[in-house]
Amino acid sequence: MENNIAWYREKQVERTIKNLNKRNMEGYYIKDKEQLLIKLEELIGEHTTVGVGDSITLFETGVIEFLRSGKFEFLDKFEDGLSGEDKKEIYIKNFSANSFLCSTNAITEEGELYNIDGNGSRVAPMLYGPKQVIIVAGINKIVKNLDEAQIRVRQYAAPLDAKRLNKDTPCTKIGYCVNCSSPNRICNDFVTITGQFIKGRIKVLIVDGCFGY
Ligand code: SF4
Q1: According to CATH, what is the number of the domain 3-207?
Q2: Which of 30, 45, 49, 141 has the least C-beta neighbours within 10 A?
Q3: What is the mean pLDDT of the chain?
Q4: What does pTM read for this prediction?
Q5: Does 116 sit in the ligand 1 pocket, CB within 6 Å?
């Protein structure tokens, strides 16, 4: 990466981590996928329960494979052959997991997390339940403030997610959000996390690179 761009990114990540910390969330800069797995080894105890939310980032960074290593009691919602009822059971178990891993749709430089969800199974355990929530996000998820977060998620992440899920919605045809009222709409929950009572319950691992949407 060109030196000045690297410098800009470093400063942006520094600001974001400082502001996450002010809000009782722990921010970490992670330089690559290898360092990410080392950090996760350190944060997640062996044989403890781990749940996950839907996330392209967790696949792209090798985290799902890591969780399937047998070292953890992994509540694997992606396992082949699970029925809708099996998944529902996992979603409920996620609330009492030791660790819940997911990504986020946007992180503001002011230290807020912004997410849109369809059925709430990802955002609900972020808000309450698991002893720790570990968010893995590429630096591509950092935005200036909540206004930019809303635009990013509404006009970029959500249409891509609808496309990934093969939804019959306007955005999967035209490539942008029209705030549809389709029965297949995936944008139902709009959640901003601005802080935590329990210091460090939410840990945000910002990985250098572009992951997920
Ligand atoms: S509100 Fe509708 S059109 Fe907009 S991103 Fe969500 S599903 Fe697509």
Answers
A1: 3.40.50.10420
A2: 45
A3: 97
A4: 0.96
A5: no
